[in-house]
Amino acid sequence: MNVQKYVEKGAAKEKIGLRGSMPPGVLFAVYDSESGKPDYIPPEYCDIPALLDELVEYVNTTDDHPLIVAAVVHYQLVTIHPFEDGNGRTARLLSGYILDINGFGFNGIGSLEEYFAYDIEE
Questions:
Q1: Coil, helix or strand for 64?
Q2: Cβ-count burial of 63 within 10 angstroms (0-12 exposed, 13-18 middle, 19+ buried)?
């Protein structure tokens, strides 16, 4: 994903690319900035390539409406959390790109996380 390199421009080299294994006893997670507790624990690093392959397969074979495809790509990419940094930015860029190439002229980058978090049960 070359997009990720642009998203992380200026980041330390070890943060660019898919995340790797963590040292024993260290958990890779998205932590709450106030409590310091894990807010989300993404899949293991070794599962990332297969999960991304499944996502690409979905995009390349689905008959879903482009709005649905953009939402699925965004949600799945942030859920898989393949990078140490820039997952949300990359997801917004990719979902925006999908909308753009399908003729939806949104200006700027939208955030679908807020929509998904609004009514989690729905």
A1: coil
A2: exposed
pTM metric for this prediction = 0.72
Candidates 81, 92, 95, 96; catalytic one:
81
Render pLDDT for 23-57 as a digit per residue (tens, 0 to 9). 887 778 888 888 989 888 999 999 999 999 999 99
What does the pLDDT look like over 80-117, one tens digit per residue?
999 988 898 899 889 888 998 999 876 655 565 666 66
Place of tokens 């799945």: 76
Number of H helices, E strands in the chain: 5, 2
Instruction: Round to whole Å and give the CA distance between 74 and 76.
Output: 6
Share of the chain residues as helix, strand and coil, in percent rounded to the nearest 5: 50, 5, 45
CA 36 to the chain's CA centroid = 22
22 pLDDT tier (thresholds 50, 70, 90): confident
Active site residue 65: no
User: 15: how many CB neighbours lie within 10 A of its CB?
Assistant: 13
Tokens of 95: 């979902």
